UniProtKB/TrEMBL annotation:
<dbReference type="InterPro" id="IPR036388">
    <property type="entry name" value="WH-like_DNA-bd_sf"/>
</dbReference>
<feature type="domain" description="Bacterial purine repressor N-terminal">
    <location>
        <begin position="5"/>
        <end position="74"/>
    </location>
</feature>
<dbReference type="InterPro" id="IPR029057">
    <property type="entry name" value="PRTase-like"/>
</dbReference>
<comment type="subunit">
    <text>Homodimer.</text>
</comment>
<comment type="similarity">
    <text>Belongs to the purine/pyrimidine phosphoribosyltransferase family. PurR subfamily.</text>
</comment>
<dbReference type="GO" id="GO:0003677">
    <property type="term" value="F:DNA binding"/>
</dbReference>
<dbReference type="InterPro" id="IPR036390">
    <property type="entry name" value="WH_DNA-bd_sf"/>
</dbReference>
<dbReference type="InterPro" id="IPR000836">
    <property type="entry name" value="PRTase_dom"/>
</dbReference>
<keyword id="KW-0805">Transcription regulation</keyword>
<dbReference type="GO" id="GO:0045892">
    <property type="term" value="P:negative regulation of DNA-templated transcription"/>
</dbReference>
<dbReference type="InterPro" id="IPR010078">
    <property type="entry name" value="PurR_Bsub"/>
</dbReference>
<keyword id="KW-0804">Transcription</keyword>
<protein>
    <submittedName>
        <fullName>Pur operon repressor</fullName>
    </submittedName>
</protein>
<feature type="domain" description="Phosphoribosyltransferase">
    <location>
        <begin position="128"/>
        <end position="244"/>
    </location>
</feature>
<dbReference type="Pfam" id="PF00156">
    <property type="entry name" value="Pribosyltran"/>
</dbReference>
<dbReference type="GO" id="GO:0045982">
    <property type="term" value="P:negative regulation of purine nucleobase metabolic process"/>
</dbReference>
<keyword id="KW-0238">DNA-binding</keyword>
Amino acid sequence: MKKRKRSARLVDMTRQLLAQPQQVIPLSTFADRYQAAKSSISEDLAIIEEVFREEGYGFLQTVAGAAGGVRYIPHISLEEAEKSIHEICERLAQPERILPGGYLYMSDILGEPNILHQLGLMFASRFTREVDCVLTVATKGISLAFATASFLNVPVVIARRDSRVTEGSVVSINYISGSSKRIQTMSLARRNLPEGSKVLIIDDFMKAGGTVQGMKDLLHEFNAEVVGVGVFAESRVEERLVHDYVSLATLTEVDLHKRRIKVQPGNYFSSERHAALRD
């Protein structure tokens, strides 16, 4: 690549960092690309780091050693996350969203790229432990899982309620739906998930938690480690099968007769989680 002015170099470096979150980029890669000294590259990275932190885009992490370099860590501030989720809660509280059984119509919200970008960034900011992949169950949680995985820079694995010939050998389990108490089946192709993987579970909606517990049971068959569970929205129930999870929104009331919905921010914003997000 031809030698560029510093302003152009900064733009291109920023683009590369944003396009490769969580990935270590050696300083030599930048130095060779721009035909510049490593000291100049370090100064450029310091400028980018300052802007990222001031504007709330995340931060750069320096990795020492022969294979070291710099890594972009996406992050959203609590203030920005709260602003976004309050706007989303207002939309979720629209009475026409009520579906039979106390569910909410959310497909339009989970189909908007800007909203998915914010939700995925929230989960990526919360789950900072090492993650090998993101697991969800077909179909509504897929877009949210991909949004989260894009910031973690890991693949998405999809569990299905019916096995497909094109996926080869599969592992299937039976699980009990937490709300309906019906026995259902969940399958995952053996080739999709290496044994011992560290997995983040993402789902769009949780009532009693039967589907999430089913995914955890399925991961047990792969000797996988569940590093976290994130759900977009949860409803309040007396008995829940899953207790360790992060929710972005909580349905506190769904009155089918009065056509009334009350939604508030989820436990993502609870006081004990604030410290984790500020670290």
